């Protein structure tokens, strides 16, 4: 069924708005996946704040003009499934990586982050990025380490004094 011009404009505007606020884009080819598998993937995408869409390549190229993902234009060959990570840059990459392990027909074509197009071999790099919560916990542990060490050092001085006094007491009692 052909799309009317108004429908095409609405699709372009919607994808452009999504791309403007997204952190990363992963493009995949889902030929050979069943409807049930795609439904499962869409459900997982919603749970991980990943905006997934199937858009015609010409409309996607127009929609991504003027965004950080304009560099992905050359990846639009054949059927394309777009996944925009909205809160965590690695969310779409992790989702597609896990899905591709279980479904051999699913193929990641390219990914784009901050205006740079990367090949599908870079999927692991993006997928291994820590989530916001993980990054904050790592930062907090790094910030906490010097304070913890200072407290242990400060606590050691009175402890040594108590041990010395106890040793002197024991020595005098024994004598």
UniProtKB/TrEMBL annotation:
| Organism superkingdom | Bacteria
Question: Which CDD domains does this entry report, sorted A to Z?
Answer: Ribosomal_L10 (cd05797)
- Recorded name of the encoding gene: rplJ
Pfam families referenced in this protein's UniProt entry, alphabetically: Ribosomal_L10
> Which BP terms from GO are recorded?
translation
What is a single cellular component term in the Gene Ontology annotation? ribonucleoprotein complex
Chain's role: Forms part of the ribosomal stalk, playing a central role in the interaction of the ribosome with GTP-bound translation factors.
Keyword Ribonucleoprotein present in the record's keywords: the answer is yes
Cited InterPro entries: Ribosomal_uL10, Ribosomal_uL10-like_sf, Ribosomal_uL10_bac, Ribosomal_uL10_bac_type
Q: What organism is the protein native to?
A: Spongiibacter pelagi
Q: What GO molecular function annotation could you give as one example from this UniProt entry?
A: large ribosomal subunit rRNA binding
Subunit organization: Part of the ribosomal stalk of the 50S ribosomal subunit. The N-terminus interacts with L11 and the large rRNA to form the base of the stalk. The C-terminus forms an elongated spine to which L12 dimers bind in a sequential fashion forming a multimeric L10(L12)X complex.
Keyword rRNA-binding attributed: yes
| Parts forming coiled coils | none
Q: Matching NCBIfam families, A to Z? A: PRK00099.1-1
Q: Could you say which protein family the record assigns here?
A: Belongs to the universal ribosomal protein uL10 family.
What protein name does the entry list? Large ribosomal subunit protein uL10
* Keyword terms: Ribonucleoprotein, Ribosomal protein, RNA-binding, rRNA-binding
């Amino acid at each position: 069924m052909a799309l009317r011009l108004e429908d095409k404009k609405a699709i372009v505007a919607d994808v452009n708005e999504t791309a403007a606020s997204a952190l990363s884009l992963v493009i995949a080819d889902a030929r050979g996946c069943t409807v049930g598998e795609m439904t499962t993937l869409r459900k997982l995408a919603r749970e991980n704040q990943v905006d997934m869409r199937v858009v015609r390549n010409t409309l996607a190229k127009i929609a991504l003009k003027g965004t950080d993902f304009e560099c992905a234009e050359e990846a639009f060959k054949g059927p394309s499934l777009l996944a925009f990570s909205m809160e965590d840059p690695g969310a779409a990459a992790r989702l597609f990586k896990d899905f591709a392990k279980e479904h051999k027909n699913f193929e990641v074509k390219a990914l784009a982050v901050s205006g740079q197009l990367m090949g599908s071999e870079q999927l692991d790099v993006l997928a291994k990025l820590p989530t916001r919560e993980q990054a904050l916990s790592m930062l907090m542990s790094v910030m906490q380490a010097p304070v913890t060490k200072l407290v242990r050092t400060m606590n050691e001085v009175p402890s040594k004094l108590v041990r010395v006094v106890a040793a002197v007491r024991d020595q005098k009692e024994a004598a």
